[in-house]
Inverse folding.
C-alpha cells in the first residue's frame, strides 16, 4: 500500500513577527518542519509533499530533494491547500496523510495509529482528536450515536452547547486517496472567510454514509501548534524534556535535566554523565562513560569514551578516549586530541592534532600544529602561526618538552626529544634531542634521552 503525506506549510505566520518563514524557526536546533518530516516518515512509504506559500523559496531551499513541493497562491484555506497536491498524487497513492508543519511535537507513533485506524476503516477518512479542558481555538468534534464523527465545528461558529464539548480536532487526517480528490472539489466556500476548509470533508463523508473514525490522542503536548513566540517557547521546553528523557532511558545520567540543553539527533553513549548547564548542539556525538560539564558547550564535535570535560567550549573538535580537559578550555574547528591527552585551564587549540599522551598546561595557544606523542606543552606556550598574511604550520616531535612562555614562530619543526627553555623565542628548526634557550633561541647542548620503558 502506498501512503503519502501532505504537510501544510503555506501560512504567513504573521503573529510570529518574523522575516523567517514560520516553519523554519528552530526547535531543539532543527527547523520546525524537520520535526514534522521526521514524524511522517514513520507512517508513510512515499516522498512527502509540502504545500508552500509565504517564504516559499526559503522553505524549498531548505527542503532540497527531501520532499516534493507545490505552491498555494493565493491561500484560500486548508482544503484549497491540499487540492494543490492533486496533480502530483492523484492515482499514485492509496492513502494520504495530511498534517500541519507547525506542529513539531506530533509523534510518528501517533500518526502511525492514525494510519492504522484508516486501514481498518471501511469509510473514506480518519482523524486525530484530543480531550482537553483548554480548547486552544480548536474545532469541536460532533459524534453520531454510533460513535463515528459527524462533523467538526469551528470555534467561531459553534453554539454555546457545542463550545462545551471537550473533544477537539487536532488537525491530523488520513484519507482514502480516490475519495479525497473528488471530495475536495465539493467543499463549499466558507461564507465568512471565503475559504475552503479541509474540516468540511468530515461532514461530506458523514452525509454519504461513510464512517469517519477518530484516533483519540493521549498526550496533550503533541497538539501544540506554533503561532506565536510564546508557543515556540512552549514547544521548545516540551521538546527539550522529551529529548532528555529519551537519553536517560537509554542509559545517560543527568544530574539536573531541566538545566541541560540537548538538540535533536545527537547521540550519547551509556553511562555518560551530563552535568548541569551543559549544551550539546549540531552534529555532536558522545561515546560511553564520559563526564561532561558543568558549564560546557559542545557543537559539531565527536567525543570518544571515558573523557572528562569541565567548563569548556568545543566546536568542530574530535576527542579520542580518556581525554581530560578544562576548566575554561576551548577547542576550535579542526582540534583533534588523541588518547589520554590532558589540556589544562585557559588553553586553546585550533586546527591542530595533539597525539596520544600530550600534556598541555594552562594559558597556551596551539594553532595549525601537530604535536607528537607524550610531549609536554608548558604554561603560556604560543604557536605564532599567522604572519599577517598567511597561516603557517608547526610540527613538534615526540617526547618534546616545551618550557613555559615559549614562542614557536611558524613555520617551524622541533625534532623528537627537543627541549626549549622558559621564555624562548624559537624561530628556526630544532634538531632531535637538542635544548634551545633565549631570544631568539639558540642551541646550547645536545641532550641524552632516557630509553622508553615498556
Amino acid at each position: 500500500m502506498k501512503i503519502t503525506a501532505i504537510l501544510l506549510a503555506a501560512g504567513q505566520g504573521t503573529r510570529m513577527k518574523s522575516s523567517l518563514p514560520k516553519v523554519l524557526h528552530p526547535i531543539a536546533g532543527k527547523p520546525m518542519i524537520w520535526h514534522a518530516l521526521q514524524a511522517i516518515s514513520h507512517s508513510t512509504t512515499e516522498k512527502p509533499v509540502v504545500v508552500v506559500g509565504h517564504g516559499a523559496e526559503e522553505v524549498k531551499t531548505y527542503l532540497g530533494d527531501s520532499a516534493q513541493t507545490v505552491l498555494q497562491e493565493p491561500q484560500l484555506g486548508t482544503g484549497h491547500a491540499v487540492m494543490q497536491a492533486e496533480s502530483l498524487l492523484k492515482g499514485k497513492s492509496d492513502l494520504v496523510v495530511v498534517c500541519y508543519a507547525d506542529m513539531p511535537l506530533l509523534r510518528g507513533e501517533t500518526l502511525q495509529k492514525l494510519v492504522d485506524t484508516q486501514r481498518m476503516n471501511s469509510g473514506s477518512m480518519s482523524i486525530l482528536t484530543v480531550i482537553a479542558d483548554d480548547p486552544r481555538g480548536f474545532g469541536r468534534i460532533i459524534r453520531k450515536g454510533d460513535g463515528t464523527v459527524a462533523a467538526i465545528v469551528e470555534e467561531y461558529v459553534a453554539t454555546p452547547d457545542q463550545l462545551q464539548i471537550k473533544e477537539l480536532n487536532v488537525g491530523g487526517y488520513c484519507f482514502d486517496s480516490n475519495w479525497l480528490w473528488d471530495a475536495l472539489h465539493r467543499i463549499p466556500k466558507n461564507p465568512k472567510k471565503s475559504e475552503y476548509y479541509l474540516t468540511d470533508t468530515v461532514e461530506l463523508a458523514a452525509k454519504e454514509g461513510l464512517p469517519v473514525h477518530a484516533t483519540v490522542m493521549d498526550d496533550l503536548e503533541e497538539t501544540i501548534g506554533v503561532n506565536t513566540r510564546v508557543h515556540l517557547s512552549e514547544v521548545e521546553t516540551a521538546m527539550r524534556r522529551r529529548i532528555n528523557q529519551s537519553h536517560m532511558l537509554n542509559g545517560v545520567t543527568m544530574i539536573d535535566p531541566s538545566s541541560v540543553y540537548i538538540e535533536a539527533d545527537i547521540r550519547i553513549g551509556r553511562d555518560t554523565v551530563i552535568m548541569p548547564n551543559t549544551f550539546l548542539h549540531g552534529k555532536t556525538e558522545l561515546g560511553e562513560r564520559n563526564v561532561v560539564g558543568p558549564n560546557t558547550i559542545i557543537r559539531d564535535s565527536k567525543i570518544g569514551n571515558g573523557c572528562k570535560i569541565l567548563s569548556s567550549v568545543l566546536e568542530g573538535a574530535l576527542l579520542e578516549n580518556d581525554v581530560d580537559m578544562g576548566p575554561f578550555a576551548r577547542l576550535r574547528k579542526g582540534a583533534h586530541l588523541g588518547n589520554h591527552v590532558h589540556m589544562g585551564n585557559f588553553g586553546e587549540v585550533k586546527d591542530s592534532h595533539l597525539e596520544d599522551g600530550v600534556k598541555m598546561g594552562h594559558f597556551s595557544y596551539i594553532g595549525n600544529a601537530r604535536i607528537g606523542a607524550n610531549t609536554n606543552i608548558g604554561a603560556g606556550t604560543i604557536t605564532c602561526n599567522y604572519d599577517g598574511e598567511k597561516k603557517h604550520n608547526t610540527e613538534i616531535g615526540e617526547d618534546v618538552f616545551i618550557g613555559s612562555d615559549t614562542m614557536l614562530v611558524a613555520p617551524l619543526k622541533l625534532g623528537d626529544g627537543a627541549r626549549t627553555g622558559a621564555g624562548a623565542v624559537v624561530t628556526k628548526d630544532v634538531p632531535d634531542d637538542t635544548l634551545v634557550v633565549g631570544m631568539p633561541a639558540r642551541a646550547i647542548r645536545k641532550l641524552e634521552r632516557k630509553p622508553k620503558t615498556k
Summary: The chain has two domains: 3-220, 234-446.
